[in-house]
Amino acid sequence: MKELHDYLAKNYGTLQEMARTITRNRSPDWEELCHDTVLALYATNPKTVKELLERNQLRFWAARIMLNQYNSSTSAYHYTYRKPEERNRKAAHEIREWSEPEEVDHQAIEDLYRVVQEGLQEAPKFDRLVTSVYFHHGHSLNTLSEATGISRTILYKAIKRTKNAIKTKKEGPR
Hints:
The protein has 9 helices and no strands. By secondary structure, it is an all-alpha fold. The mean pLDDT is about 80.
């Protein structure tokens, strides 16, 4: 739809600012939210988009989509970007309860988990996804390469970049 494409080309910066405001400038949350909103706009009925453009209300419509995606616990955005973190935190807590002796410093573990999450957030999306699949599903580089059709070298480099981002975050600024 040409009208929507032209609108987005002209107003993409505004959409990015709205996403930054909604996510309190958390990167990469705002970027992912902006991209999901653009995809939702393209998935919207062209007749509806045209009417919104004619009434000069598409910006409001996009803002509502962003707010709904970010705040709803049933949105695709929530399941893709926010739910995995909640699931991992809960699993880590349950594992601690099963296997750790009483003298373990739970605050230190929680701090380390926060550092790992922040390091992951700084890694590019592709690198995060590859690392997540690699570790959570117990793949080797060979099986992951066969399953995805992506070369082992590219997968290795993505995992290495993610590990380095986490390590850098853990060590702090130099």
